């Protein structure tokens, strides 16, 4: 007589086919097994690992592994699922950012090989050591910027997991994806902020400037400023954003003036470790020579 799990296969497949959910973690499959064990008449000795092994060998359940160096992730899919739906399931609260968000908002024509996912950190209290000084700014931007190495390869893409500043999901929206899935992604205005702050995740300063030009009739600068105040960076990134808006040459003066309402107390930098640079006295900003 075949094992009970084999005779229950048809019922198990019918159950998974009936679900609207097609992406699972091990805990979710374990809960399904416990809830349905009696109706499927499975023995108590049928554990989650063996159950998954049976499904992977005998049904359309797929095991998908992401070899992130800091925290590997294993997901289980019932058949094929949209790429971005799978990626957004990797961590609770994850959303698409930087060059990936640029692509979905039409701010670049480069199809991103690297897919940037952000998961926000828990809120942190600022202490006295976070106060700015010109010396601390100069020293920080003389050093190379830190780039996340928490990257996993998947289907020809590099999936980069960012552990971003807590913003309370400022500017995160939902929009339809290429396969009808729902994307969680930064809106145009939050994207313009993020790429100004971290151009290394966005194709570099020239690509960021191009994105600002392409965003001219898509972005609300008032909304951008609202997001910027909400996030409340320690560094004066409003100088960077004001510079990009000015250099784009396509924004109205009243829009740019919204950035001038912020205090400009320090010299600041567009990128780290610039070898050759120019200086904008208007925005008190060093920027790479030949930008534009």
Question: What would you say about this model in short?
Answer:
The protein is 39% helix and 19% strand.
Task: Report on the architecture of this protein.
This protein is an alpha+beta fold and 292 residues long. The protein has two domains: 4-78; 83-288, no CATH class. Helices cover 39% and strands 19% of the residues. It contains twelve helices and twelve strands. The protein has helices spanning 4-7, 9-18, 26-40, 48-58, 83-88, 98-104, 134-142, 188-197, 205-214, 221-231, 237-248, 253-260, and strands spanning 23-24, 61-66, 73-78, 95-96, 114-120, 151-154, 157-164, 172-176, 182-186, 268-269, 277-280, 285-288. It has a four-stranded mixed β-sheet with strand order 4-5-7-6. It has a three-stranded antiparallel β-sheet with strand order 1-3-2. A three-stranded mixed β-sheet has the order 10-12-11, with helices on both faces. Strand 11 and strand 12 form a beta hairpin. It is elongated, with a radius of gyration of 24 Å. The chain starts with a helix and ends with a strand. The model has no long low-confidence stretch (mean pLDDT 95).
């Amino acid at each position: 007589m075949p094992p009970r799990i084999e005779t229950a296969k048809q019922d198990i497949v019918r159950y998974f086919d009936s679900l609207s959910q097609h992406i699972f973690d091990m805990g979710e499959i374990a809960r399904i097994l416990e809830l349905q064990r009696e109706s499927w008449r499975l023995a108590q000795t049928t554990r989650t690992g063996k159950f998954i092994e049976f499904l992977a060998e005998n049904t359309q359940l797929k095991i998908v592994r992401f070899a992130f160096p800091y925290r590997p992730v294993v997901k289980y899919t019932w058949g094929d699922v949209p790429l971005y739906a799978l990626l957004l399931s990797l961590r609770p609260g994850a959303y698409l950012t930087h060059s990936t968000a640029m692509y979905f908002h039409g701010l670049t024509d480069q199809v991103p090989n690297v897919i940037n996912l952000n998961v926000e950190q828990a809120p942190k209290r600022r202490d006295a050591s976070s106060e700015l000084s010109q010396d601390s700014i100069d020293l920080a931007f003389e050093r190379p910027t830190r780039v996340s190495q928490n990257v996993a390869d998947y289907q020809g893409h590099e999936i980069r997991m960012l552990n971003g500043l807590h913003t309370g999901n400022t500017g995160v929206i939902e929009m339809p994806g290429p396969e009808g899935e729902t994307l969680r992604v930064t809106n145009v205005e939050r994207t313009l902020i993020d790429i100004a702050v971290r151009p290394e995740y966005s194709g570099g300063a020239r690509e960021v400037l191009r994105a600002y030009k392409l965003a001219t009739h898509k972005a609300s600068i008032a909304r951008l400023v609202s997001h910027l105040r909400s996030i409340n960076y320690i560094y004066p990134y409003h100088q960077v954003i004001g510079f990009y808006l000015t250099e784009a040459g396509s924004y109205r003066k009243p829009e740019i003036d919204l950035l001038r309402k912020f205090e400009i107390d320090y010299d600041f930098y567009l990128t780290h470790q610039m070898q050759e640079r120019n200086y904008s006295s208007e925005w008190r900003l060093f920027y790479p020579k030949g930008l534009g």
